[in-house]
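User: Round two. Same drill as before: sequence, then structure, for each protein.

Assistant: Same drill it is. First protein:
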Amino acid sequence: MTTPLPLEGVRVLELGHIIAGPSAGLLLADLGADVIKVERPGEGDQSRGMPAGTSANFHFLNRNKRSIAIDLKGSAEGRALFLRLVAGSDVVIDNFAHGAVEGLGLGYDVLARVQPGLIYLALKGFLPGPSETRPFLDELAQMSAGLAFMTGPRGQPLRVGASIVDVGAAAYGVIAVLAALHQRAQTGRGQKITSALFETVVFWVGQWLAQHAATGQPSVPMPEIRQGTRMGWGVYQLFTGADGEQVFIGITSNGHWERFCDEFGLKDLLADERLDDNAKRVAARAWLPARIAEEMLRYSSVELSERLERCRVPFALLRRPDQLLDDAHLLASGQLLDTPLPGGGNAKLPKLPIHSTAFDMGLQRPAPTLGEHTREVLRELGLETDEIDALASRRVIA
């Protein structure tokens, strides 16, 4: 596909590190924006210097970006240079601690005077309010807003097995940025948007807040609610195959139930009037799942998958993340990008989870080395080579 990516021509300055800010920048970069990662000379994004497994994550979240190293903290010249970059930019992402950029004299109010049409995305721990100055992290949001309580057994709160709050807050922020860009096209005005970790989790546990409002009962952790009944289905849980591997089976309609029973020869269950609708199957959970579990043990997980696919019943093999590298669907759809890693070699890392008939989001450039594009970006800004050399000699840039 040769159609330009939808955000080509949009310039973004990313003041972000680790996961949340880089995730927002990645979403915009993969969609075609020119994302310039503004980093501290000598150190850059903190994730660059983390242990191997974590530093490799840098190369996942920072593809398709450019890096410019400017001293914003110790150099007035560096801050003035940043303001010149802002004047020609559409979006700024601020993922630093509350008040950090304001303390440098580079908060939204200052930047908006330089570029009135600027869309400023602040990714913070909290939305404006009494707690907004607190330092905050993904795991803290999961603990304080109910997600860890709902995920682990009672008394053993458990964080989700990915940094979903950082990524989720970034995604909601980017949705708002795209809406603001659309609005700016009509009004010419920019705005500041804040997306926050705590409120992201509060939104996610909204289903449990609604349940509490309806029942008056306190929330109950997911492991304490039996599989299936917690979502209102009679057969909705993991079953173990003959090879010890587990398969989740979700029977959510009478059609599923009929086809399931036909496929596995469960004529007695299909004929049993106690099971002819979902409400009855839920009522039968004291014995029905155990009966089905006995049947599933007769087949390997591969055989179960083949049969369940054939009869069009929802199912999923339980897998580790690393096993996804061999997933036939992901490989056939080209959803895993060959991405260069530090020290040589490539990794298969995921594209954005979207598909368009008009454009393809591939790897335009690998994650940048620190300051790799400093000179390139400054030349685009109109600086001559001798000016750039002078800034480098004064350690304003790197």
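Second protein:
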Amino acid sequence: MLNQGIAKHTPLSFGVANIVVAILVLGIAWSLGGRPGIGTVANALLVGSFIQGLTSIHALQQLSHDALPVRIPLLAGGIALIGPASAFYIGADLGAGPRDTLMLVGARRTRFRIGIVRATLEVGALAAGIVLGGTFGVGTVLFALLVGPIVEASFAVLARTPLAVASPAPVPVVIAE
């Protein structure tokens, strides 16, 4: 939503606004002690590029006009999958994406749990997006509130699997309040 609001008030497209915000967030995370890697830079540049390409596909554009019985499972599945996906790619230790790096550094510096830090970041971006006139609904709010706890729970589950034991890459520790 933040990127949509920025695109609404600048000549940037939604995808390019995503890249610009990712680079700014990366700079903030780096200045706070976040360690960028190849995955961090790739995420910052590629996610916005993929968004730009995918939003130009007519069939994907039409999903927003489908009935709720189609959209609700897609939303629930997307929110549920982002947690394990984040845990796997961050656990690979090739560099977390900009928002994930900011989440990790924020949890380390504030000593708050990862889920709380991520939800706070997402709700902040949601609020900024609302101020900038971005479109939002129940799904946007649910994502902002749930993504942090789901990512945190996924780290905890992954840490208990053989994948975490076999991997030399450390899985981020969930920091208790």
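The CA atoms of residues 50 and 56 lie 10 Å apart.

User: Perfect.
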